[in-house]
C-alpha cells in the first residue's frame, strides 16, 4: 500500500489530470492517453512537497449537498454584487472580518477561502495558519457576528463533515 | 427556435454579468471593494456563456460538453485564487506603508 502511494501520491488528482487531458485533447488516441498517463504520474509526483498530507473526501453525500448550496450561493452572490455595484456606492460599508476557524487542515482551509471568495459579499484576503483565522473582506457589512456565524455554519461546518477534520 | 431563444438569453445574461464586473471595477472606490466585482461577476458571466455553448452544441458535439464543464471547473478554481493572491499582496503593501508612515 505504501508503495502504491509512493508512485501515485495523489490517486484522485492523477485520475483528474488524466481525465482532463483526455477531455481537452482533440481526439483520445493512444498517444494522447500515453501523454495523459505520464502527466498524471509526473505532476502529482513533482508537486508532492506542496501536499503535506492527504485530506480524504469521506462523506460524498455531504459534499454533494455543499456543492448544491455553493452553486445556488454563487448565483445569489452575483445578483447581490450586481445590485451593490449599480446602487449608491457611497452607502456601502466595507470592512475586514476575522473568522476564527475550527478546522485545522491547510487544504480544507484553502478550499473554504475559495468558497468564501465566490459567495455573497465576501472575498477572503488571508488565511492565517498560525492563529487559524480566515481574514475576509466584506463589501457591505451590517452585523459582523452574524456574518461570521453564517460563514461558519454554511460552509465551514459542512466542509468539516465532508473531510472529517 | 426555442433553443435559439434560450441560447441568446444565456449569452445576453453572461455578457451582462461580465459587463457588471467591469463596471464594478470602475465604480467602486477602493482596492478591496474593487476585487468583489470581477471575482464574482466573471464566474457567472463566463458560466452563462459556457452554458449557452453547451445548449447550442448539445451532447452530440464531440467531447459531449465535457470540455465546457472543464472550462467552468478551471474558472471556479482560478478566480478565487487570483482574488486571494491580489488581496494578499495588497495587505502586505498596506502594512509596509503603515510601517514607513510610523517611522517618518
UniProtKB/TrEMBL annotation, chain A:
<dbReference type="InterPro" id="IPR002758">
    <property type="entry name" value="Cation_antiport_E"/>
</dbReference>
<comment type="similarity">
    <text>Belongs to the CPA3 antiporters (TC 2.A.63) subunit E family.</text>
</comment>
<dbReference type="GO" id="GO:0005886">
    <property type="term" value="C:plasma membrane"/>
</dbReference>
<keyword id="KW-1003">Cell membrane</keyword>
<keyword id="KW-1133">Transmembrane helix</keyword>
<dbReference type="Pfam" id="PF01899">
    <property type="entry name" value="MNHE"/>
</dbReference>
<feature type="transmembrane region" description="Helical">
    <location>
        <begin position="30"/>
        <end position="51"/>
    </location>
</feature>
<keyword id="KW-0472">Membrane</keyword>
<feature type="transmembrane region" description="Helical">
    <location>
        <begin position="63"/>
        <end position="86"/>
    </location>
</feature>
<keyword id="KW-0812">Transmembrane</keyword>
<protein>
    <submittedName>
        <fullName>Na+/H+ antiporter subunit E</fullName>
    </submittedName>
</protein>
<dbReference type="GO" id="GO:0008324">
    <property type="term" value="F:monoatomic cation transmembrane transporter activity"/>
</dbReference>
UniProtKB/TrEMBL annotation, chain B:
<keyword id="KW-0472">Membrane</keyword>
<protein>
    <submittedName>
        <fullName>Na+/H+ antiporter subunit G</fullName>
    </submittedName>
</protein>
<keyword id="KW-0812">Transmembrane</keyword>
<keyword id="KW-1133">Transmembrane helix</keyword>
<dbReference type="InterPro" id="IPR005133">
    <property type="entry name" value="PhaG_MnhG_YufB"/>
</dbReference>
<feature type="transmembrane region" description="Helical">
    <location>
        <begin position="6"/>
        <end position="29"/>
    </location>
</feature>
<dbReference type="Pfam" id="PF03334">
    <property type="entry name" value="PhaG_MnhG_YufB"/>
</dbReference>
<feature type="transmembrane region" description="Helical">
    <location>
        <begin position="41"/>
        <end position="59"/>
    </location>
</feature>
<feature type="transmembrane region" description="Helical">
    <location>
        <begin position="71"/>
        <end position="91"/>
    </location>
</feature>
<dbReference type="GO" id="GO:0015385">
    <property type="term" value="F:sodium:proton antiporter activity"/>
</dbReference>
